[in-house]
Amino acid sequence: MKQQITLTIASRDYVITIEDDEFYRRLERDLGGFKNNTKFLSPKELLDCFVQTNYDSYEDEMHMLSLIGEIDKRLKQ
């Protein structure tokens, strides 16, 4: 089901349409909840979210590379 949220950043509103309910719930959790489908973020909070997301992606990539290495090693045995 499509849901719209409004992110207010530095006094500007950005309306985002999200079509995946699970992603909506995850975004809501990660941003600390919405009030009336609205979230106010300071530029610093937005930057913190961006950096955290990139770090999480980096960790996931490192974990996948490690798993690939382990699988490759076991297949060669």
How would you explain this protein's 3D organization?
With 77 residues, the chain is of the alpha+beta class. Helices cover 57% and strands 23% of the residues. It has 2 helices and 3 strands, in the order ββαβα. The chain has helices at 21-31, 43-75, and strands spanning 3-9, 12-18, 38-41. It has a 3-stranded mixed beta sheet. A hairpin with a 2-residue loop joins β1 (3-9) and β2 (12-18). The protein is elongated and about 60 Å long.
Strand order of the largest sheet: 2-1-3
Cα-based radius of gyration, to the nearest Å = 18 Å
Distance between the termini: 48 Å
Low-confidence stretches: none
Mean pLDDT: 90
Give the helices and strands, then pairings.
Elements: E1 3-9, E2 12-18, H1 21-31, E3 38-41, H2 43-75
Parallel strand pairs: 1-3
Antiparallel strand pairs: 1-2
